[in-house]
Amino acid sequence: MAFDTILVANRGEIAARVIRSARDLGLRTVAVYTTADERAPHVALAHQAVWIGEGPVGDSYLDADRILAAARETGAGAIHPGYGFLSENADFASAVAAAGLTFVGPDPQAIRAMGNKAGAKRLMIAAGVPCVPGYEGEDQSDEALIRAAQDIGYPLMVKAAAGGGGRGMRLVQEPADLPKALASARSEAANAFGSDELILEKAIIEPRHVEIQVFADAHGNVIHLGERDCSVQRRHQKVVEEAPCPVMTPELRARMGAAAVEAARAVNYRGAGTVEFLLDASGAFYFLEMNTRLQVEHPVTEMVTGLDLVAMQIAVAQGAPLPLAQEEVRFDGHAIEVRLYAEDPANGYLPVTGPVDLWRPAQGPGIRVDAGIVQGQEISPFYDPMLAKIIAHGPTRQAARARLIKAVEDSVLLGTVTNAAFLAAVLRHEKFAAGVATTGFLDQVYPDGFPVGETHPQDAALAVAALMQHDRDAALARAGYVSADQLGWSSAPLLPRGLTLLAGDARIDATASATRDGWRVGVGAEQYEIELATEGNDLRARINGRKVEAVAHIDGDTVQLAVGAARHKFRRLRAGAQDEAHAGGGRVTAPMPGLVLAIEVAQGQAVTKGDTLAVLEAMKMQHQITASVAGVVTEVRVATGQQLASGEVMIEIEEEA
User: Fold this and answer.
1) Per CATH, is 208-445 categorized as 3.30.2310.20?
2) Cis before residue 155, ω within 30 degrees of 0?
3) What is the pLDDT of residue 586?
4) What confidence tier does 593 reach under pLDDT thresholds 50, 70, 90?
5) What is the DSSP string of 514-550?
6) Does residue 288 contact residue 209 with C-beta atoms inside 8 Å?
7) What's the pLDDT score for residue 643?
8) What angle do CA 245, 249, 253 make, to 5 degrees?
9) d(Cα 402, Cα 443) in Å, to the nearest integer?
10) Do 125 and 111 form a contact (C-beta atoms < 8 A)?
11) Predicted structure pTM score
């Protein structure tokens, strides 16, 4: 079991996270990377890095042969799989052992036992762990599943037996909706996990999602490290996680912890694992699944226990006993984590790609940012859109929440679109602040999705002032010395200069003129007197006497601003330039790079607004492409199996008059 070199078979923030702990332990580290990831931070952090493919996961991070070849090439004695990719692949764990290497994780038998939801549920029932009523039978025909659904009752959940993360999962309210849900869940499950096996479960309406962190060694010791509340979810994917759970009591923690430990013992578990439960308002809880790996949200447990879970994983893999007993586990304060995604909440949370023009993570007491990006990097369409995790710890829940809101605002990423404003809004919401959010929280608060915020004239005015000052500073650098008291001076009154900004679909007409103290900017009917000081990307402004701080990135005629949690992008429209207006609603374009899985319409077909036109797979999820107008399909310009670039025209619709 002894090893001095460890290969991390992953990418992004978790690869960087594992490499840091391994280096702290004195181990040599090996990263694997693709062409798309060659500038990623995990590559720079490792002692050695091995190229394993161009970009697509099937030919790189999911290719076990390439991973094992990289381990042989570098003399690695162990492989840490991180999470996702091959982390819960029992065949990969077996291949690692067969190659004479140490797999930093549980035995293949435990992965296999818990990796299939149907089999895991049968095991848990036998072990006396409370389970949700459902169907986990071998007969996977539609007829068998429909009969089982009648016995279970509605609403119910359709779930992929082999996976997690919300993929292959559908909520079904009525019997008529079940056949379509089965078909789409099978398709998504097969694409994500290589298995289309499904289970059914009675839907527990608006429970909390509470998971228990367990740890076991090879000497028969199994403990739990408390719980995490992961109830704030969108499409069954976690958005906010915290420890401890706001409604947890010592007695309930003891019962849930004991059930989680029994679940681990039932499969002779070793290493870090998570047993997930649904907790209802009465205090009853039901086994959901066991993740046989480190979780994305493990930092909140680390911050309240003071333990390094990755270091514990490595120690257990080397044969060491657990460093503490159950009675020695201590909890200190409260920790909350949010996931920063490359996605557009105002556009149905669709994942996006784009450059990282500026990345500056928050710093401060109780703040931790685990990131998988570096400034200058390009966000690829091949991988999960999570870019970073922002975590805050405090003596109380409210202290941690306040710190986290500020940390979300201060973690500035400009270039691609992110969910920063959405995260801050969730953390500020009164229901989350009160600790009463359940898994239904986001659907209740944002039933129509996260609202599109209008650009405030003051933000546009600040962008104008930043552009004007940037232009002036560039001109002064070319002109030579000009004294400060001459800036903004003229022997004759100067007429305000007119300019036009584009902010997404919006066209903003503005005027600007220099003053002795800064700039006078007009946006619509509003007038702003702006004093502006810049230091690098930092803007310190006084706007109509009110202090405003922002972060800016200016490139030519484009200025991006971070003001609080809001992120804005403005482009100056030069005289004679074409306004790049979006195509009319009858032209349907790919909202992101992706693979066409299905075309649902044909030329000449009539469609109404909201009809599904096609299904696009991108960033490991399926996305319904819908009609934004009613009309007749005049042309289908793509085919099933085609890889599309963002903005590529897919379908043309002649809009109804």
Assistant:
1) no
2) yes
3) 83
4) confident
5) E-SSSEEEEETTEEEEEEEEEETTEEEEEETTEEEEE
6) yes
7) 86
8) 75
9) 24
10) no
11) 0.85
Query: How many CA atoms within 13 Å lie on the side-chain side of 465?
Result: 32
pLDDT value for 580: 44
**What is the arithmetic mean of pLDDT over 506-530?**
94
The average confidence (pLDDT) of the chain is 92
Q: How many beta carbons lie within 10 A of that of residue 612, not counting itself?
A: 13
Domain 587-655 CATH class label: mainly beta
And the tokens for 649? Answer: 């025209």
From the list 155, 156, 114, the residue with the least C-alpha distance to 135 is 156
The three-state secondary structure class of 507 is strand
* Runs of H (alpha helix) within 415-501: 420-428, 430-433, 441-445, 457-479
Question: Reduced to 3 states, what is the DSSP secondary structure of residue 435?
Answer: coil
Q: Which residues contact 251 (CB under 8 A, 6 or more apart)?
A: none
- Annotated domain spans of the chain: 5-104, 134-202, 208-445, 457-573, 587-655
CB 297 within 8 A of CB 241: yes
Q: Which CATH number fits domain 457-573: 3.50.50.60, 3.40.190.150, 3.30.700.30, 3.40.720.10?
A: 3.30.700.30
- 497 beta partners: 512
Higher pLDDT, 624 or 434: 434
Q: Which CATH class name applies to 134-202?
A: alpha beta
Count CA atoms closer than 13 A to 45's CA, side-chain side: 27
Residue 526: is its pLDDT beyond 50? Answer: yes
Of the options 3.40.50.20, 3.40.50.150, 3.40.50.300, 3.30.420.40, the CATH number for the domain spanning 5-104 = 3.40.50.20
User: What tens digit of pLDDT does each residue of 291-311 get?
Assistant: 999 999 999 999 999 999 999
Report, as an integer, the average pLDDT of 382-399. 96
User: What string of DSSP letters covers 266-322?
Assistant: HTT--EEEEEEEEE-TTS-EEEEEEE-S--TTHHHHHHHH---HHHHHHHHHTTPPP
Residue 522 amino acid letter: G
Contact 169, 180 (CB under 8 A): no
Structure token digits, residue 566: 């809001």
Q: How far is CA 348 from the centre of its chain?
A: 14
Helix, strand or coil for residue 636? strand
Distance CA 334, CA 594 (A): 39
Task: Give the up-direction half-sphere exposure of residue 431: CA atoms within 13 A in the CB hemisphere.
Answer: 15
